[in-house]
Amino acid sequence: MSRTILAVSEDLGVREVLRRLVTGAGWAEVDASSAPAAILIGCRGYIAKNDLAVAQAARSERRIPILLLTAQGSEALAVEALRAGVTNYLRLPVSPEQLSRAIEAALVGAAGPAAEDRLLGKSKAMLEVKTHLLRVAACASTVLITGETGTGKELAAEFIHRNSARAAKPMMTINCAAIPDSLLESELFGYERGAFTGAHAAREGKLRLAAGGTVLLDEIGDLSPYAQAKLLRVIESGEIQRLGGQRPLKIDVRIIAATNRNLESDTSFRRDLFFRLNVARITMPPLRDRAEDIPLLAEAFRLELNHAFGYASAGFAAGVRETLLAHTWPGNIRELRNIIEAAFVHPGPDADGLIHLPPGFQRAVEGSRGAELEQILKALAHTHWNRSRAAEELHWSRMTLYRKMAKYQIRRARASGE
User: What number of CA atoms fall less than 13 Å from residue 174's CA on the CB side?
Assistant: First the structure.
């Protein structure tokens, strides 16, 4: 993707501000004859018809995001911007970093559900995961994706499929927790006509429907012992047998399994099945270990929800970023999106089009900060300030502990004589 921006404004003062912002954000400015990655319109209270015409002409048939930056915002302008097809609405002044996050988030939204990079994030942890995912996509091995609830395991599976040799074939997702043993074979393997009462015609199972493609076995840790045995045989033989069928049928699918459980220590999960799945292993990092991605994710969700709710919010209110970064996010990315959606429901955008977090969430975060500080100090005291052992006690990575210590300005006081 090119890192080029078309910036337009009939106001020369605003035009100069846009030019500095584009350069400061690390993007290159182009003219209207080029094909930019995004378009900026600058104004002081109303959108000039000529500026909008230039932007829409450059947009042409492509879904290029248009961002409006205004020095004098109003609710009427926000509504006008939304109706004109503006993707995002920002109030000046903004920093180059804020603009860059807004552009990145808008690009993801413009690309849609099949975007190459729905796995948002530029943290070291996410860059390492994406690099590993690309290597895994290039091979044909079975994959086991682990990670806490809400960390994006299904998105990782989609990323592997889209970047594999099977990308042109179907991807089928099977929720293992939702299939009872009584329906397992008919759902996964299919059945022949007359196999049971009501089977008036033969039906393909989900494994055959994904022929040539990929099957994601989501929440595989919830499979019963009976289902595990059936699945193991399929993986080992590459064959299935429909209910009522007389002969086995070959299947050609790549298996990706996902779970939030530790299958290695789960005594209810078959060891032989675990070894079959655990060929290519990917662990999705929790959001607390990639806190620098939170502003980008929040901005992407705000843009997405602008369209879902029919709003034209201009951004987040002061203090929102700090509150989001202070939370530990046990529900990870899913919890973050739900909180942003709750902010659209209550209290919703204010008169300036700014989004405030739900009051209950803000109070909970403030209350948890004191408890978290006490928890960290206790762990450090108990381990005699051994940070590695303290991180283990807290079930955090060492980097998470270091970030928390920096946030709370925790330093070990030197005793006299040390």
Answer: 29
